[in-house]
């Protein structure tokens, strides 16, 4: 007897999560070339990322790291070279605080 596996539409595959996260990080790096966006990001990182549709989640980041570690490393090196440590700290704070 062949088992049928139910696939739910609301469950994204690891490949989908990784691709979505890669796209968002690539767009974020591109958007940082825009001085107005970079300033807004420096002043209100979470709100600016949300407004730009660039919010990231842990599950997507982990999938990206597992499936494309070299690409992840390259894009994060570029990102970290364009933002300061205050931005990185603000992004790591829980949204409830």
Brief write-up:
With 97 residues, the chain is mainly α.
Helix/strand order: HHHHHH
Indicate the low-confidence ranges by residue numbers.
none
**Helical content band:** 55-70%
Percentage of residues in strands: under 5%
Mean pLDDT: 83
What radius of gyration results from the CA coordinates?
A: 16 Å
Shape verdict:
globular
Number of continuous helical runs: 6
Rounded to the nearest angstrom, the distance between the terminal CA atoms is 53 Å
Quickly give the structural class.
mainly alpha
The number of E-state strands comes to 0
Largest sheet: none
Q: In words, what does this structure look like?
A:
With 97 residues, this protein is an all-alpha fold. It has a domain at 35-92. 68% of the residues lie in helices and 0% in strands. It contains six helices and no strands. It has helices spanning 14-31, 35-43, 45-51, 58-67, 69-82, 85-92. The longest helix is centred in the N-terminal third of the chain and has 18 residues, at 14-31. The radius of gyration is 16 Å and the shape is globular. It starts with 13 loop residues before the first helix and ends in a 5-residue tail after the last helix. 9% of the residues are buried. The model has no long low-confidence stretch (mean pLDDT 83).
């Amino acid at each position: 007897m062949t088992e049928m596996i139910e696939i739910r539409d609301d469950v994204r595959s690891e490949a989908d999560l990784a691709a979505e996260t890669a796209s968002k990080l690539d767009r974020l790096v591109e958007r940082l070339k825009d001085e107005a966006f970079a300033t807004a990001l420096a002043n209100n990182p979470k709100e600016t990322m949300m407004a730009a549709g660039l919010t990231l989640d842990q599950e997507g980041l982990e999938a990206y790291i597992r499936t494309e570690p070299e690409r992840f490393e390259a894009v994060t090196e570029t990102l970290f070279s364009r933002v300061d440590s205050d931005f990185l700290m603000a992004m790591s704070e829980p949204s409830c605080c």
